[in-house]
Write a structure and sequence with these properties.
Blueprint (H helix, E strand, L loop, with lengths): L2 H25 L2 E4 L6 E2 L2 E6 L5 E7 L4 E6 L5 E4 L2 E2 L1 E4 L2 E4 L1 E5 L18 E10 L2 E10 L2 H4 L1 H8 L1
Antiparallel strand pairs: 1-3, 2-3, 3-4, 4-5, 5-6, 7-11, 8-9, 10-11, 11-12
Length: 157
């Protein structure tokens, strides 16, 4: 492998690590998930943090090939660029997405009642750097205390 490809791989890993750590930091504070239809989809995640009651929204944007996030409806900040949102290579399909998991790790189907049963969120994204294609997956199991405000309040007393 030449130096240029090695540098691309290192930079891609650094960018992905930053995005994964920021996502984990925010999602680990989840108090509740939005029950508004469309707020939980393969390209959208909306939740409220127990820290200050802030609402976070993550969007995988196909048009700009980015992952963005916003806090309390503010201007969306850029988390990652050159994200491959949905593509097929040699008959293999690659889709950057959020997957919502139930208590046993099973994937949940999006519905208006989805927010009541989310126990984990998996973020998978693919980055295109130069001619190289990189895959990353982050899974966050939500602590039940984060989803139960009375448990959080009891623990703080």
């Amino acid at each position: 492998m030449n130096i240029a490809l090695t540098n691309l791989a290192i930079l891609s890993n650094m960018e992905a690590d930053h995005a994964q750590r920021k996502f984990m930091k925010h999602i680990n504070g989840a108090n509740s998930f939005s029950s508004t239809v469309g707020d939980q989809a393969v390209d959208k995640l909306t939740f409220t943090s127990y820290l200050g009651g802030l609402e976070y929204q993550y969007i995988i944007d196909d048009a700009s090939r980015t992952i963005k996030y916003s806090r309390d409806g503010g201007t969306a900040g850029l988390l990652l660029q050159n994200v491959v949102v949905d593509t097929t290579i040699n008959e293999e399909r690659y889709t950057s997405r959020f997957a919502f998991k139930g208590v046993k790790g099973n994937e949940l189907v999006t519905s208006p009642a989805l927010s009541d049963s989310i126990h984990g969120v998996e973020l998978t994204f693919y980055l295109l750097r130069g001619e190289s294609f990189y895959s990353y997956t982050t899974y966050a199991a939500i602590d039940e205390n984060h989803l139960n405000r009375s448990s959080v309040n009891s623990a703080q007393e």
